[in-house]
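Need fresh eyes. Consider my entry:
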Amino acid sequence: MKSYPSIPRVATAPDGLLEDGHLWLVEKVDGANFRFQLRSSGALRFGDRSHVYDDADAMPTAYAHAVRHVREHLDRDALRRAVADVEDVVFFGEAMHHHTIDYDWDRTPSFLGFDVWSEADDAFRPPDAAEQIYERLGLQPVNVFEREVNTRDFDPDDYAIPTSKYRDGPAEGVIIRDKQGRRAKLLHPDYREVDDTVPVDASAEELATRYATRRRFEKLHAKLDDHDQPATVDTLYQRMLEDILREEHKQLRHGSEPVDMQAFRSTIAARTRAYLDPDQTL
């Protein structure tokens, strides 16, 4: 499966990007690189930045929310109608879980698409085409701040990073791109350097209790009800684990000792059973 090229900072932008033509200014989001491909068998194949997983269940647990989102929202029939061979197309985007920026997770989808690769053309689709493809297939493309900006009207030194679509605060930055596939990134001053995460040093059981709250259970229970899905122990446990790993990903990675994930999962499972048992309280 095609891997995604690194994007240089604007100071080392590809020749010609800022000199002629028109630019798309796309919100840079603080997620994790995520790609997928529909196989001819109908199964989906997923990958992160460096690895491809023929078995989606082998993906790192932090990506489970994005895998579920794509599985549930991708219109596979529309994709089959659009291309002669579905395996010619690779989709790139971000799995939106917490790294540096704490987004409004209720308005931020688990996956945001930003690029589409065509093996037949040996090229990425232009940004306007990629945006339309994601919309037609039932997935949300990443936010675009401005379209078709003439290069003479854009000065990266004077450009103020706009407010993010996914939080009440500035975007992490802007991806500057053109229809020839050239790209560069311009970061907000607050995110030009990796921040220092304050470690959370607590036992796995303490962390699971802190994050698997009644309020979170009620939110996820309501979402299942909205989709006419029964809130079984297994279903609610899986949604709770995915939700925590998405929103608290940053903290779980940065304690002084690795989190005992077996104990973490066991505590969440116990709290799930307690939530669904009318004779128990959390």
Remarks:
- The radius of gyration is 20 Å.
- The helical segments are 64-73, 76-82, 127-136, 204-211, 214-226, 233-247, 249-253, 261-276.
- The beta strands are 22-28, 32-38, 44-47, 52-53, 89-95, 111-118, 123-124, 144-150, 173-177, 183-187.
- Residues 204-276 form one domain.
